[in-house]
Structures are given as structure tokens and as C-alpha cells.
């Protein structure tokens, strides 16, 4: 079904920018040789998403799915396209400010997309939610593969050009998701599912009924995110030190981590079935 394919693309696109930021380790090392930039990105992103999600819940109001999804994806497209500007800033403080600002924007956009994409999928027949989760699962893997390919096709010294191409491909990928979502809105199925269901605001009294499930979700996310990508990419190789020098080591580790994450998600889905 075309609708399920679109939801898979939405799930892939809305989390992809975060993974795209954590993958070009060699690029961040060139720009910030004395700082673990991936750790800063992960920390700022986590704080930004948590604060934004709490604000959205506290403020409440009707969830305008279309505005949030198009606005969130559009913001991510612009930020990914603007990230290569970081290399043009001469001062380290200025470069750090650009990266942090871009990370905050991606975190805010992702928070708006998080509830909206899943909320829209819940209005559709069975299969939509599963495809969203599938897209989320493979987004990190494809981000890792894209980075490996972009690094391999350029000369070792062309870190900035390869990363610029990498971010450009990511920006175009998210842009395709916007087009796909606009196409989804024109389908008769979408007209029935979205417009036939009232978009209500969140009610705090529901927490008394679902707090156990929410606690399990929080625990699951906390344990999953306890080891950020920066902790993995920082592991050095003693048997093959040349992999540390050419910065292939962190890319290999991040790619293996992404592969095993997909394997784990698939195994859990199979076991549940």
C-alpha cells in the first residue's frame, strides 16, 4: 500500500538528521580537534528534545498534524543544507555556536515530528504504525552507510567536500519525505482517516491510567540512549592503529552499531509475532 510506504519514509526522515549529525566523526575532529563534538551534539539534542516535548505536553492544544510534519521536515531540510557552513567559520567558538544552533533546531523539529508522525499513523489502518517504526529503525543504518560511501568516494584529504555531499544527500532525502507526505494527503484513504478523526489535545488525567506504560517507555528510552554514538566512536583500536589515524575506526564502529540495532529490532518484532 502506498500509504504504508509513505509512513515508512516519514519514520526514516524524521530521525535521520540526528543520525546524520553523529556520523561524520572525521569532519568534527577536523573542526574541533580538542573536543568530542559528537558528545556535545548528543547532549544538546537530548536536552532539546526532552524540553520541547515537555513544553508541547504542558502547553497542550490541538495537534495540527499537517503543519507540524511539513514544518518539522522543512526545518530539517534547511538545517542539513546549512550545516556545511560550519567549516567556513574561522573561529572555533563561532563554529561551535553554529553546530549547537543547528542541533537545537533539529531537536525542536524532531520533537514536533515525533508525536505528529506517530499520531497520524495511529489514525490509519494497521500497517501504518509498523512502517513508521521500520523507517525509524533503518534510518541510523542508512545514515552510517551514506557516510561510509561519501568518505570512500572522495580523497582522504577531502573531508569537508565529502561531508558537504553527505549533508546534501541527507537534506534531499528528507525533502523527498515532504513530497511523499503531500502526496499522502491527496489520497482518498488519507481524507477519510485524517478528517474523520478529531485531533484532540492531550489530557493530563489520562496519565493516571497509562502511567505504568509510560514508565516502561521512559525506562526503555533511558537504557537505549545511555550509550550515545559519541561513546562508541571514541573507542580506539590498539591492534590496528592506522584506523585511528585515518578516522575509519569510528565509522566502522558506528556502522556496526547501526547494523546490530536493526538486527535487534527485527529480532524483537519476530519474537513478538
TrEMBL record:
Cellular localisation: Membrane
Keyword terms, alphabetized: Membrane, Transmembrane, Transmembrane helix, Transport
Major location (coarse): membrane
InterPro entries to which the protein is assigned, alphabetical: Eqnu_transpt
Membrane-topology annotation of the record: Multi-pass membrane protein
Membrane listed as a keyword: yes
Record keyword rRNA processing present: no
Superkingdom of this protein's organism: Eukaryota
A GO molecular function held by the record: nucleoside transmembrane transporter activity
One GO location term (cellular component): plasma membrane
PANTHER family registered for this protein in UniProt: EQUILIBRATIVE NUCLEOSIDE TRANSPORTER (PTHR10332), EQUILIBRATIVE NUCLEOSIDE TRANSPORTER 4 (PTHR10332:SF10)
Protein family (similarity comment): Belongs to the SLC29A/ENT transporter (TC 2.A.57) family.
Name of the protein: Major facilitator superfamily (MFS) profile domain-containing protein
Taxonomic placement: Eukaryota, Sar, Stramenopiles, Oomycota, Saprolegniomycetes
Amino acid at each position: 500500500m502506498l500509504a504504508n510506504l509513505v509512513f515508512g519514509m516519514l519514520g526514516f526522515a524524521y530521525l535521520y538528521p540526528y543520525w546524520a549529525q553523529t556520523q561524520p566523526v572525521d569532519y568534527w575532529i577536523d573542526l574541533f580537534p580538542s573536543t568530542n563534538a559528537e558528545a556535545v551534539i548528543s547532549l544538546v539534542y537530548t536536552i532539546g528534545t526532552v524540553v520541547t516535548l515537555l513544553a508541547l505536553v504542558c502547553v497542550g492544544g490541538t495537534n495540527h498534524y499537517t503543519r507540524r510534519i511539513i514544518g518539522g521536515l522543512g526545518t530539517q531540510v534547511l538545517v542539513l543544507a546549512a550545516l556545511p557552513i560550519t567549516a567556513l567559520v574561522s573561529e572555533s567558538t563561532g563554529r561551535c555556536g553554529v553546530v549547537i544552533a543547528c542541533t537545537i533546531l533539529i531537536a525542536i523539529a524532531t520533537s514536533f515530528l515525533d508525536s505528529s508522525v506517530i499520531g497520524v499513523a495511529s489514525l490509519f489502518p494497521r500497517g501504518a504504525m509498523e512502517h513508521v517504526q521500520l523507517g525509524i529503525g533503518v534510518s541510523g543504518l542508512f545514515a552510517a552507510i551514506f557516510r561510509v560511501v561519501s568518505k570512500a568516494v572522495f580523497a582522504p584529504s577531502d573531508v569537508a567536500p565529502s561531508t558537504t555531499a553527505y549533508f546534501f544527500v541527507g537534506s534531499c532525502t528528507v525533502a523527498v519525505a515532504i513530497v511523499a507526505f503531500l502526496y499522502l494527503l491527496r489520497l482518498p484513504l488519507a481524507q477519510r482517516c485524517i478528517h474523520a478523526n478529531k485531533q484532540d489535545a492531550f489530557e493530563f488525567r489520562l496519565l493516571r491510567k497509562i502511567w505504568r506504560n509510560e514508565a516502561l517507555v521512559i525506562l526503555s528510552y533511558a537504557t537505549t540512549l545511555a550509550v550515545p554514538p559519541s561513546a562508541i566512536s571514541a573507542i580506539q583500536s590498539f591492534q590496528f592503529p592506522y584506523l585511528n589515524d585515518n578516522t575509519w575506526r569510528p565509522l566502522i564502529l558506528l556502522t556496526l552499531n547501526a547494523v546490530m540495532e536493526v538486527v535487534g529490532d527485527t529480532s524483537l518484532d519476530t519474537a513478538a509475532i
